[in-house]
Amino acid sequence: MSQLDVNTDERPEPREELPPAATLSFRRQWGDVAIGTALLGFALWFFVTAGTIEDYSGEAIGAADFPRGIAFLLAIGSLVILVGGLRKLRQAVTDDHLIVVRRYRHVIIGMVMLVGFPALMSLVGFYFAMAPWMAAFLVLAGERRPLHIAAYVAGFLIFTRVIFEMILGTSLP
Questions:
Q1: What is the DSSP secondary structure assignment for residue 141, as one 8-state letter?
Q2: How many CA atoms lie within 13 A of 143 on its CB side?
Q3: What pTM was estimated for this model as a whole?
Q4: Distance CA 170, CA 86 (A)
Q5: Per the domain annotation, does 11 fall within a domain?
Q6: Is residue 38 predicted with pLDDT exceeding 60?
Q7: pLDDT tens digits for 121-168?
Q8: Are 138 and 152 in contact (CB under 8 A)?
Q9: Which of 62, 73, 99, 146 could bridge 57 with an S-S bond, Cβ 3.0-4.6 Å?
Q10: Last residue of a domain, which of 87, 102, 117?
Q11: Averaged over 100-121, what is the pLDDT?
């Protein structure tokens, strides 16, 4: 058989087994409810906080209108997910599909880090917040090579400096 022929009878080589880790598993319907609720909450928060953006446009479309439109669209999508999950739970639709989250503690820590980043940035500025935050996030994601972490962080900071501050003329806090 040549390398271009495809043999559909052979199964691919199995991947290496992942090392043991704490897992969290739940039915897909509950995942839809949880994700729909979380996204709806985020959309409402985004809609409300977008209203605090100062508007200098008068009667025209202002700076807050775009984020509010995005929040509105996100709310519609999250309601579709939420109502679908609730409908399946109410109808007792069951399937064998489980959502399995490995290293769920890392996921929760990552979410807390994401939520906390704006506060850190407002305290110390973008660059002084991003460097340690990104390094910590990379370690949390499993990167353990210090030179790689330093290269990723430096590359990202240089990229943001060149694009935002030098090319676009937008200063970062």
A1: T
A2: 15
A3: 0.56
A4: 44
A5: no
A6: yes
A7: 889 998 999 999 999 999 998 899 999 999 999 999 999 999 888 887
A8: yes
A9: 62
A10: 102
A11: 87
